[in-house]
Amino acid sequence: MEQLSARAKRLLGLDRAGPLRSNLRRLKGKYRVAMARLRRRRTKATVIGITGSSAKTTTAELLAHILEGSGSVHKLTVSNTFNRLIEKLWRLPRNSAYAVMELGVMAKGDMARMASVLKPDIAIMTLIADEHHSAFGGRAAVAAEKQALVESLAPDGLAILNVDDDLIAAMALNTVAPSVTFGRSERARYRACDIHAAYPQRLSMTIHWPGGALALRTRLIAEHFWLAVAAAAAAALELGVDARIIAERVSTFEPMPTRCGVWQVRGGPTFFVDTAKTPFHSLGLAFDMLGRADAGYKRVVLGQIADYAGKPAKAYGSAYRGARAVCDQIVFVGEHAHRSGAAQEDRDSGRFLEMRSVRQVAEHVRATQRPDEVILVKGSRNLHLERIALAADHDVRCWEPVCGYPRSCLECGKYLIPFEQHREIRAAEKDELRAVRKRASLWRRFTPFPRRPST
User: Fold this and answer.
1) I need a surface site. Which of 184, 195, 322, 448 has the fewest CB within 10 A?
2) Which CATH number is correct for 259-395, 3.30.70.20, 3.40.1000.10, 3.40.980.10, 3.90.190.20?
3) First-to-final CA distance of the chain
4) DSSP codes of every residue in 229-287
5) Distances from the Cα of 244 to the Cαs of 88, 192, 218, 240, 419, in angstroms?
6) Architecture of domain 43-185
7) Among residues 200, 195, 246, which one has the least CA distance to residue 224?
8) pLDDT digits (tens, 9 = 90+) for 64-79
9) What is the phi-psi region of residue 368: left when phi exceeds 0, alpha when psi lies from -120 to 50, beta otherwise?
């Protein structure tokens, strides 16, 4: 290495560690993408891409649950980025019957990039809202971005579109593939009717299509989940799944714990936990869910709001008024709690509370909880508001304001351990995982292949 000239080292990127590592990462990324494309070409699975501003995760999870009754399913949900898509495709078994992939975007061009690798056989569009406002600036730009998934379909593919959404309905004109529609409209091929949910009554509905009517009973607690159920049922019917299997599988699907999951505390309150994300457009749906619930007392705990246009005070003020209309007490938590514009009368009476920390809210709820109440906990995942529900009957000891873990406390599993100890525990877990992988590698290396029996 010493014999290389300074110019040669500079050209090779060896004069600094940074460029060399960057080039290696780039080469590794290209290799992973190439392998993902190869796996996609070789698989026999029917590949289904699902996107939209909301309802895509529940649609993907429910559709995968339905299809598991008919064959093996390889799925990607929640972590819906390009890198995770590549990783999932890289591990896609050749003999999977279905691949259900949820796709999300953060910036312009993301969907076209993902669709070019996924090359779906079926594309499902749920709804379009004003998400990631700083990146897109409105619904029309979001629709133009999401449309790339439909445009990537081959002529023998299929687009399944929400006809109630004007921007999605128009996508039928921008694909060479045939399309079918679902929705509440009379124009929908798969029409959702008789939709009802009022906790403790769970969501029930009927899907009408040219082949008949399909009555569905679910474990979901809110009417707005009709969209995910209708989209998943329409896709399953188009794939030829028997209607009786669909009804049975839908009835056994459990809500995702942090997406309007029901957490019941023995002898205490019932929590509606919706802490995966909080786009502004979803607040009305959550408040309507609480308003329909049959309970002696109702409370809303609201954290950070995302994806709104205009000034924060306008969004948080609107949220305060919407919550006030359906509940007995409102608690705003986090750095934006002061933006509510709550009336002084509500502050003095205790109907509105403003708190800075999640721990403070949890202690308040635990001290004042009632067995006949329902508490809606809603906020973006960065605050981990699910700890409020966990603390109602667990000794939660991790109260880090912003821990940086991108998933829920349930997936982390360390909420009973102080945050200061998490790093040491994670390091030990990684060491154990490396040891397990090393042992497995050694076993494969030194274990001889079994010989064929002689004939």
Assistant:
1) 448
2) 3.90.190.20
3) 57
4) HHHHHHHHHHTT--HHHHHHHHHTPPPPTTEEEEEEPTTS-EEEEE-S--BGGGHHHHH
5) 30, 17, 14, 12, 48
6) 3-Layer(aba) Sandwich (3.40)
7) 195
8) 999 999 999 999 998 8
9) alpha
